[in-house]
Amino acid sequence: MDSDSDISISDYDEQNLSRSKAKGKGKATDKDKRKKEKAKRKPKDVQAYTWEANFTRSWETVQEDERGSLQGAVDDWMVRGRRKRLLAPQNAIRRTIIRHMVLLIDLSSSMMDRDMRPTRFAVTLQYAREFIIEWFDQNPLGQMAVVGMRAGVGERISDMSGNPQDVLKSISDRHKLEPTGEPSLQNSIEMARNSMNHLPTHSSREILIIFGSLTTCDPGNIHETLDECVKNKIRISIVALAAEMKICRELCDKTGGQFGVAMNEGHFKDLLFEIVPPPAQRGIIPRPATGGTTATAAATTANAAADLMMMGFPTRLPDASPPSLCQRFLCPRCLAKVCDVPTDCDICGLMIVSSPHLARSYHHLFPVKPYTAVASFDAVPDPSATSSCHACSRPFPTTAAPPANVGEGMSAIGRYRCPDCNTDFCSDCDVFVHDVIHCCPGCSK
After folding, report:
1. Are residues 115 and 237 in the same domain?
2. 74 located within any domain
3. Is this model's pTM higher than 0.90 or not?
4. Which residue has the higher pLDDT, 216 or 405?
């Protein structure tokens, strides 16, 4: 026979159990009612999340070849990416080949974050060196300066120079660029703007900012600085490493620059290298005025200032000349000695360039036409005569690619043809011609 204490304990447990079940049923019914009300208010064709509509099974697109290797799929993806870049519009655009850029690097304490390995500061310096080398290679007539942002002020790291070695040397010492304090966009932009006030109108004025902070310590109204940059036709581009800020977006939109937020190290490098090509020159649109002929003449005079400019080709000193301190060229106007070209003469102010530099800047104005992808072997007049690439002599594939791997301007037989000389090239030479040599080996155009 159970004791009275056992009976009371069991009765107490049964009462608590019944109460918890009753509470659970009440909660369940409330949740069901809420779900039904939401389902009534939401349209049936709308999914729960916006990213569900863009979701794709990317791993199913990777297919193994006959030997079970994935190298073919990886190469196919690389070729697709390169062809997508080459198929961009290649129209002749009036570009500013004489560029002046000030590189603003954030040296605040936020650059020591480790969301980019090893730190934002280390990755920024590495990509800045690669950017400077590529920028001077594609813009040999340009000049660049470097300004740091730390401790609430703008610190001049390198003066405006046309020699890439001088700019690289200024950011080589990491100890002098140790991040500290807060950045100041206004002070740094004002320093860069004041250093470009004396530049001629036919050259571009650009500011590239690598910004890793979410705050800026400004002494005044930064919108006044923005208005001055718009007035002086200074183009500001920003690569943010943390997140988008409204003032950064306004700086880029109102000045005609580019803005982007780096999602990872690879995207960070892509955003930087998008600024390497020279920007399109802004044309002066004549406004309809009451004078008619006077307004047209004024617009013609304003446009004529950017059409012609004076340059000088220096004379190289012979090896038998008397030794001097690094003076290797002579200015053609005043015969002053100059160390490196391109540069401006310190005596007469003439812009001194060499003919190879001028020729290397020519491809921005008249780029190579994009090659046409050859669809099938029927489009090849004599396969035996053109069995290899015209540039590298590598043999073309003898079998066509599967239909699933053909698309986005790609060739099924690996041939890409110049529209002027009808010469066939492989995919690697197609990219090399358009990205490096900027001249077709078949027709020299």
Report:
1. yes
2. no
3. no
4. 216
